[in-house]
Amino acid sequence: MSSIWHPFTQHGLQEPIPCVVRGDGAALHTANGRRVIDAISSWWVTTHGHAHPRIAAAIRDQAERLDQIIFAGWTHEPAEQVAAGLRAIMPPALTRVFFSDSGSTSVEVALKMALGYWLARGEARHRILVMEHGYHGDTIGAMSVGQRGVFNRAYAPLLFDVETIPYPAAGAEQTTLDALERACAAGAAAFIVEPLVLGAGGMLFYAPETLRRMRDICARHGVLFIADEVMTGWGRTGTLLACEQAGVVPDILCLSKGLTGGAVPLAVTMASEPIFEAHWSTDRARMFFHSSSYTANPIACAAAAANLAIWREEPVLERVRLLGERQAARLAALDGVRNPRRLGTIAAFEIGAGEGYLADIAPRLLAFFRERDVLLRPLGDTLYVMPPYCIDETDLDTVYAAVSEAIARNQ
Ligand SMILES: *Cc1c(COP(=O)(O)O)cnc(C)c1O
């Protein structure tokens, strides 16, 4: 009996917990010799494939050179490479790179930067605007700006108040824009949003035009625009950033998951110059008070630098486009699903009658896919396929064959 307490796992249900010993490309290999297709990129992190040779080599080399160094007042080459690499491909207005360790902490950092900015400017702005169905992580601040529900009921008394803007469902965009306009006019520090796709909220899409208009509203009222591209970044939606599709540049950008190609944990929060300048002073009381022990860990940064090199030197967006086409063709051939949709490498749809996250159908599907050696993890009755960009036709066919069978059995 293992003593491990797993995340998002109800141990009382005694579901099997397979042990994975090796990964390569889109495949995971278990201790009992099964080859499992990773159709959700190990929870949305793996972009180029598992155990990517270039990233693995970078980690190995760096581990032998410099493993860890305090980052307050010190720097190192891998971190400088990552910062320079990001500056070269991210929007030029995002001039500053702050490191942390996970998507959740990149969001905490973004919120703290926004509040620090307003304090330095002497304006009493601290209200945060959020989008309905949003997800930004599981730490207290990240939960505060995310959708409330069964996930965070126990902690609700500790979560800070935010103002929630309705999700811009197709046809109801104006309601969202009007609500945002009113909330901004009333004064707010920042609006945090997942661009184009609300991931954990159920792979909900909305139009680039809406994103662009939301950004414009914030700009007009001086409300900082925080783009949480932790999931959507690194090609997931067909472009390096989802914001690109709307021609939008945020004031603050959160990146993690694919930042290291999905190999090791690392995150960055990129900020525009005015936000950095607001903290710039000879007064030590105004510095940015955030750090963690492993901020910009050199091994993690070496992995991120290797990821950036892959983006520079290999046709990643071409692979993304190809995977998108393959996904589209298979999605179009699926019968008996509701609301099939695709953006970039993400394909999603609903199955069954519609029961929400704790729908009985989810654990049944999970078990069904596990038996077929396909790693898919439904969000309630929403099923989505989001594989590493290297998945081949055969594996994708196997995934969709399992999906078709699951749908047929469920009818
Ligand atoms: C996964 C996710 C996070 C949290 O990232 P962690 O690394 O799991 O803390 C934040 N925002 C979005 C949009 C995410 O998808």
UniProtKB/TrEMBL annotation:
CDD domains registered for this protein in UniProt: OAT_like
Annotated substrate binding sites: 43, 135, 257, 291, 377
Keywords noted in UniProt: Aminotransferase, Biotin biosynthesis, Cytoplasm, Pyridoxal phosphate, S-adenosyl-L-methionine, Transferase
Main location: cytoplasm
Reactions catalysed: (8S)-8-amino-7-oxononanoate + S-adenosyl-L-methionine = S-adenosyl-4-methylsulfanyl-2-oxobutanoate + (7R,8S)-7,8-diammoniononanoate
Localisation per UniProt entry: Cytoplasm
InterPro entries with a match to the protein in the record: Aminotrans_3, BioA, PyrdxlP-dep_Trfase, PyrdxlP-dep_Trfase_major, PyrdxlP-dep_Trfase_small
EC numbers on record: 2.6.1.62
UniProt KW Transferase keyword: yes
N6-(pyridoxal phosphate)lysine: residues bearing it: 257
GO cellular component, one term: cytoplasm
Names of the cofactor(s): pyridoxal 5'-phosphate
Annotated binding of pyridoxal 5'-phosphate, by residue: 103-104, 228, 292-293
Keyword Cytoplasm: yes
MF (Gene Ontology): adenosylmethionine-8-amino-7-oxononanoate transaminase activity; dethiobiotin synthase activity; pyridoxal phosphate binding
Signal peptide: none
Site (Participates in the substrate recognition with KAPA and in a stacking interaction with the adenine ring of SAM): residue numbering on this chain: 8
Function of the protein: Catalyzes the transfer of the alpha-amino group from S-adenosyl-L-methionine (SAM) to 7-keto-8-aminopelargonic acid (KAPA) to form 7,8-diaminopelargonic acid (DAPA). It is the only aminotransferase known to utilize SAM as an amino donor.
Assembly description: Homodimer.
Protein family per UniProt: Belongs to the class-III pyridoxal-phosphate-dependent aminotransferase family. BioA subfamily.
Protein name, UniProt field: Adenosylmethionine-8-amino-7-oxononanoate aminotransferase
Species of the source: Sphingomonas endophytica
